[in-house]
């Protein structure tokens, strides 16, 4: 059978990869920025958070816009703006300029994950949804494997401005690729009739807008217990993920006294294992077990909770000053979280009523990325006050426990939320 859907899945994965090159570039360049502009750890925490304030606050509006205007149009405009924001970062002249450019990057990248989640729902039947989601979610982890060393080499040899310049060029290249390649299944002339039937008959999310208006859909979803369970649980995941995404290179430089290049090579290790865990456990294993007839809710929630439980290995990093032991604990934690992440990202298309996938994804990603704003600031404050990452990692562990409780007691079975009632027409 033709595999057009997997090519689209690969395209979405490349988009997330470039997305995260943009995000990690600041954490790699941070030591140079700290030296050049005389920044404190608290200042760095604010810079790390700048992206997430706008990114998080725009998630719900972006989800509503996505449900209204569709993947193709929203995805194109978002990709174009990534390159603009990275270019402005490279040209910034100090703390204020970098902060504003990173805030603009948050605006530009706000549609990124909701676009990928909604497109995956359109393009893949339910029993392939975990692997398809894992492709773009694993790209977020793999970006650290190749992106951190690549940006680090650029920063060390050419300076921090070229680190952002590199990500700007990659962003523009992806905009061109997405514009030329992506179409929804019903509009894709290269998709065969046989594969289209396979996608639709397998339970793909129907294309089109919902019966309710965007604000009515949002109000309805905010009253649903499942949406709150998903959002609180994914916020806990986001806190720990973004702590490591923003602070891991700095942790290795400050606590383990490594150079930028050495910290980049060490930081890549947990992300390699996280990428593999994302694809093999969060993707392949889930689809394999569901295809063999195991209960879908039991499989997905089992992986979700087991992954979050392994995330508690972050506590282990507080007990050692040996960089090898610390990296082992962090690798276990990130690998567990990576296995859980595709489950989280597959849920909007699995539980949303018709036409509400983007809005559910927006609500979930708002909660997730508010933690992306909070975690760098809290971590920077704790490290600045205590000169240690110990308490910062303890806070992360507590967040994971709260998230697991939300998944267990609020999310419930993984099944579609009932359609919102349609208001009677006026006469």
Can you describe this structure?
57% of the residues are buried. The radius of gyration is 21 Å and the shape is globular. The chain has 16 helices and no strands. With 427 residues, the protein is an all-alpha fold. It folds into two domains: 1-202, Up-down Bundle (Growth Hormone, Chain: A); 213-415, Growth Hormone, Chain: A (Up-down Bundle). The longest helix has 34 residues, at 4-37. It has helices spanning 4-37, 41-57, 59-69, 71-90, 95-109, 112-123, 129-158, 160-181, 193-201, 214-221, 225-254, 260-291, 296-311, 323-351, 357-386, 390-411.
* CATH architecture descriptor name of the largest domain: Up-down Bundle
Biggest sheet details: none
What is the CATH top level name of the largest domain?
Mainly Alpha
Number of helices: 16
Q: What is the CATH topology descriptor of the largest domain?
A: Growth Hormone, Chain: A
Please give the domain count.
2
Oligomer: single chain
End-to-end distance, in Å? 51 Å
Which regions have little confidence, pLDDT < 50, spanning 5+ residues?
Answer: none
């Amino acid at each position: 059978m033709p595999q057009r859907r997997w090519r689209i899945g690969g395209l979405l994965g490349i988009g997330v990869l470039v997305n995260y090159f943009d995000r990690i570039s600041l954490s790699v360049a941070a030591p140079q920025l700290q030296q050049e502009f005389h920044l404190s750890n608290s200042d760095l925490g604010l810079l790390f958070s700048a992206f997430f304030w706008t990114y998080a606050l725009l998630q719900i509006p972006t989800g509503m816009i996505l449900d209204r205007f569709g993947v193709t149009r929203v995805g194109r405009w978002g990709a174009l703006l990534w390159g603009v924001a990275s270019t402005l970062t490279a040209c910034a002249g100090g703390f204020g300029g970098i902060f504003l450019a990173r805030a603009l990057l948050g605006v530009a990248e706000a549609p990124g994950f909701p676009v990928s989640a909604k497109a995956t729902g359109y393009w893949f039947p339910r029993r392939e949804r975990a692997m398809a989601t894992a492709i773009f979610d694993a790209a977020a982890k793999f970006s650290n494997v190749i992106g951190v060393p690549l940006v680090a080499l650029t920063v060390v040899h050419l300076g921090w401005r070229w680190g952002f310049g590199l990500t700007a060029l990659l962003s523009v290249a992806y905009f061109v690729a997405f514009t030329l390649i992506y179409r929804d299944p019903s509009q894709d002339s290269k998709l065969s009739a046989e594969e289209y039937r396979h996608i639709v008959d397998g339970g793909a999310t129907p294309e089109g807008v919902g019966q309710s208006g965007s604000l009515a859909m949002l109000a309805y979803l905010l009253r649903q217990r499942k949406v709150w369970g998903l959002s609180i649980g994914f916020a806990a995941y986001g806190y720990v993920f973004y702590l490591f995404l923003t602070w891991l290179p700095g942790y290795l430089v400050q606590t383990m006294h490594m150079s930028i290049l050495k910290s980049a090579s060490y930081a890549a290790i947990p992300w390699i294992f996280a990428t593999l865990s994302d694809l093999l456990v969060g993707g392949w294993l889930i689809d394999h077990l569901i295809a063999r007839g195991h209960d879908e809710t039991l499989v997905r929630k089992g992986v979700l909770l087991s992954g979050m439980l392994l995330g508690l290995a972050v506590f282990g990093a507080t007990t050692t000053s040996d960089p090898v032991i610390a990296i082992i604990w962090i690798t276990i934690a990130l690998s567990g979280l990576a296995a859980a992440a595709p489950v989280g990202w597959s849920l909007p298309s699995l539980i949303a009523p018709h036409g509400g996938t983007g809005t559910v994804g927006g609500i979930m990603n708002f909660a997730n990325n508010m933690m992306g704003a909070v975690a760098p600031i809290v971590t920077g404050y704790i490290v600045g006050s205590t000169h240690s990452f110990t308490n910062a990692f303890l806070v992360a562990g507590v967040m994971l426990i709260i998230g697991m409780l939300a998944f267990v007691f609020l999310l419930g079975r993984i099944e579609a939320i009932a359609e919102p009632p349609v208001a009677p027409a006026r006469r």
